[in-house]
Amino acid sequence: MLVLWPLAVALLATAGLLWAPWPQSWSEVPMVCRALVSALRLWWWSRQRPPPTLLDVLLRRARENPDKLLLLFEGRELTYGQLDADSNRLGRALLAATALSPGDCVALLLPNGPLFLTAWFGLTKLGCAAAFLNTNVRGQGLLHCFRSSGARLLLTSADHSSLLEELLPALRNDNVTVFVLDGENTGGAVESLHDKIQAASDQPLPQSLRSEVTFQSPFVYIFTSGTTGLPKAAIINHLRAHRMASFMTGCGFDSSDVLYITLPLYHSSGSLLGICSCISAGATAVLRSKFSASQFWDDCRKHNVTVIQYIGELLRYLCNVPKKSNDRDHMVRIAVGNGARADVWKEFLNRFGNIRVCEFYGATEGNVGFMNYVGKVGAAGKVNFFTKMLLPFHLVKYDAELEAPVRDANGHCIAVPTGKVGLLIGEITPKTPFIGYVGNKILTEKKHLRDVFRKGDIYFNSGDLMMLDHDNFIYFQDRIGDTYRWKGENVSTVEVADVLSMLDFVQNVCVYGVTVPGNEGRIGMTAIQLHSGMDMDGEQLYEHVVANLPVYARPRFLRMQKAIETTGTFKYYKVSLVKEGFNPDVVQDCLFILDDKKKAYVPMDQEIYQTIISNQIKL
Ligand SMILES: *[C@@H]1O[C@H](CO)[C@@H](O)[C@H](O)[C@H]1NC(C)=O
Ligand SMILES: *[C@@H]1O[C@H](CO)[C@@H](O)[C@H](O)[C@H]1NC(C)=O
Ligand SMILES: *[C@@H]1O[C@H](CO)[C@@H](O)[C@H](O)[C@H]1NC(C)=O
């Protein structure tokens, strides 16, 4: 039965290709073939015991071509062979210094760089999973993330250890061990493992440490802020990592390519799509610690970059840089990423030349994903015969006011017709599982949608509104509910509300995102109801917000309300608030704006509003 499966896929794919009525179908053939080869190879691997993970791919590359460059980071080089040797040393030092055993999770709080890879694959070699902590998250948020990973060990770098200082008492209380991996042992609050790592042998770590690892074992935990509360650790298992790493291959990425990564590695884009794709294809990554619009093309020219990675805002930033005569002087042929809007996309192509923009859609933790491999401007993906067969997804009617899918008289969801916007949901089946969040059944359950088309079925609720057109292109429209995106980060309204509610003069808050012309995503805004008889303290509020929230999550605008209206289920009527935005002529309440120069929230007037609308102030 199982042996027949790939044969059936091959036959169906051929039939699908021949039968497909699409105009671009010939340009799609290479992509479909590559996807087919990847699928077959994965199927073949999944039948081996133990199944070859991405680590095994790395080890094979290190054996066959040890001097091939894997990573170039700000002048430092890391070859496939060096990563193998360095991660052996790190793994051995950890084994000697801790009581780590296979199956444990270890948290990493590390900046972009070779050390991130060494620690990650060192842990994989020990049969452990790595939880990537977001280096932007501070204070209690960071502690929450660490605790939810279930790790007992936290690895960091010398320059990031200061983020942990205020958390050390709590971590010690939880019996957590913290090590700095680089830097001298200065006798600081956190012990450095640097000397022990240097002194350790680089001989391979025993295979037996990984004997229990299967494709279903966790490989990494990635923190995402979905629709509810604080960041959640999404489990990425080895199978999932293989799938994500073969994504770029589908676009035509191969071992001769040089990929330019400016995204943080603690996000799935940088690590799984970026680094893992390079390992999977045997290619080279050029990594930066941080995106820089002005350095971007110089870097691409200097390193002969052929493929770049983006998130929506990134392309816009590139377009915002003043035009130069050498804008088209580069070797970049493919851009892979998500969130590019049609207008920016067109401008990008006009300006920087013939680059194939491979936009994709896929939640880190979700079970549906699309890829726009033909480069159709604005589309998040192309749905073909294959996708339809392998991905049981639907778009259903959604009520933004009630924040829930619309149900018919029988309690079932209603699929929207082609060309109409609907909530994307993906059926959860053994072949399209939703692995969920680590140790959190409630959060995982919240992403489930049950009895959708018949009693007992279960779907993954993506939280995204999408539209499928008559040519089978799928377009992203909006994100629903409690999260909005700003500067490429998901901002959880619940998390922001939790922070604001801690102030004694605040009675009720309702957090939402508003659009600003010329900016992607939504910027934070908050309606506040004060305790009766108390005044708003703009300076205290500012201090509190800066101390507790990362830059992108700080609400930029405030409006004071006498009472905040709620629905029957005690949800806020955000829709009308969002619609009114932050225009003092429209909003009747007192308006405030966060002012970093004055270090306070200050009253906002029409003049300030105009400077924002005309993009004179950079938000
Ligand atoms: C930490 O270790 C001490 C001593 O071994 C033990 O009494 C305590 O319960 C542990 N605390 C936690 C949170 O595990
Ligand atoms: C980039 O390509 C040019 C021409 O093919 C070559 O001369 C140069 O050495 C390459 N640079 C790097 C950093 O590989
Ligand atoms: C934002 O949310 C989506 C859907 O939950 C997730 O796939 C993505 O990774 C998140 N992004 C960040 C930066 O956490």
Number of strands: 30
Report the portion of residues in β strands: 15-25%
Q: Ligands bound here?
A: 2-acetamido-2-deoxy-beta-D-glucopyranose
Low-confidence stretches: 18-23, 567-571
The residue fraction in helices comes out at 25-40%
Bulk shape: globular
CA distance, first residue to last residue = 58 Å
Explain what this protein looks like in three dimensions.
The longest helix is centred in the first third of the chain and has 22 residues, at 25-46. Among the domains are: 80-236, Rossmann fold, CATH 3.40.50; 385-479, Luciferase, Domain 3 (Luciferase, domain 3); 484-613, GMP Synthetase, Chain A, domain 3. The model is unreliable at 18-23 and 567-571 (pLDDT under 50). Helix 1 runs antiparallel to helix 2 (25-46) and helix 3 crosses helix 4. The protein has an 8-stranded mixed sheet. 33% of the residues lie in helices and 24% in strands. It is an alpha/beta fold and 619 residues long. Bound molecules: 2-acetamido-2-deoxy-beta-D-glucopyranose (NAG) (3 copies).
Structure at a glance:
By secondary structure, the chain is an alpha/beta fold. A hairpin with an 8-residue loop joins strand 26 (506-514) and strand 27 (523-530).
Helix and strand arrangement:
Elements: H1 4-19, H2 25-46, H3 54-64, E1 69-73, E2 76-79, H4 80-97, E3 105-109, H5 114-125, E4 129-132, H6 139-149, E5 153-156, H7 168-173, E6 177-180, E7 191-192, H8 194-199, E8 218-224, E9 232-237, H9 238-245, H10 247-251, E10 258-261, H11 268-281, E11 284-287, H12 296-302, E12 307-311, H13 312-320, E13 334-338, H14 342-352, E14 356-362, E15 369-372, E16 381-382, H15 385-390, E17 393-396, E18 398-399, E19 404-405, E20 421-427, H16 441-446, E21 448-450, E22 458-468, E23 473-479, E24 483-486, E25 489-492, H17 493-501, E26 506-514, E27 523-530, H18 538-548, E28 557-560, H19 574-580, E29 591-595, E30 600-603, H20 606-613
Parallel strand pairs: 1-11, 3-4, 3-5, 4-8, 5-6, 6-7, 10-11, 10-12, 12-13, 13-14, 27-28
Antiparallel strand pairs: 1-2, 8-9, 14-15, 16-23, 17-20, 18-19, 20-22, 21-22, 22-23, 24-25, 26-27, 28-29, 29-30
Helix pairs in contact: 1-2, 3-4, 4-5, 9-11, 13-14
This protein binds 2-acetamido-2-deoxy-beta-D-glucopyranose (NAG) (3 copies).
The site of one 2-acetamido-2-deoxy-beta-D-glucopyranose has 2 residues, from loops.
